[in-house]
């Protein structure tokens, strides 16, 4: 797929970036190359490849999902710079 300067200008506008008029042909060429690489990737047969979440296979250690401690509101609130009625108090940001 080939991108022309008008399309590059529109993409720059949608991305909210300012591109000088003289730089649009170069941007159009770079975007065309990127789309060419994507087309090459789409041509690769990956039907027998399992998806992976990491380049190295690893299993994370699991722990029991149990409550370890609770009822610490007073200790937590002691660290707050401003607490009212058992909650953190923050400055108003919306008027």
Automatic annotation (TrEMBL):
Presence of the UniProt keyword Ligase in the record: yes
Keyword terms of this UniProt record: ATP-binding, Ligase, Nucleotide-binding, Protein biosynthesis
InterPro entries documented for this protein: Asp/Glu-ADT_sf_sub_c, GatC
Family matches, as Pfam families: GatC
Entry EC number(s): 6.3.5.-
First and last residue of the signal peptide: none
Tagged with keyword Membrane: no
UniProt catalytic activity: L-glutamyl-tRNA(Gln) + L-glutamine + ATP + H2O = L-glutaminyl-tRNA(Gln) + L-glutamate + ADP + phosphate + H(+); L-aspartyl-tRNA(Asn) + L-glutamine + ATP + H2O = L-asparaginyl-tRNA(Asn) + L-glutamate + ADP + phosphate + 2 H(+)
Family: Belongs to the GatC family.
Known partners and oligomeric status: Heterotrimer of A, B and C subunits.
Protein's job: Allows the formation of correctly charged Asn-tRNA(Asn) or Gln-tRNA(Gln) through the transamidation of misacylated Asp-tRNA(Asn) or Glu-tRNA(Gln) in organisms which lack either or both of asparaginyl-tRNA or glutaminyl-tRNA synthetases. The reaction takes place in the presence of glutamine and ATP through an activated phospho-Asp-tRNA(Asn) or phospho-Glu-tRNA(Gln).
The protein's name in its UniProt record: Aspartyl/glutamyl-tRNA(Asn/Gln) amidotransferase subunit C
Species the sequence originates in: Paralimibaculum aggregatum
Gene designation: gatC
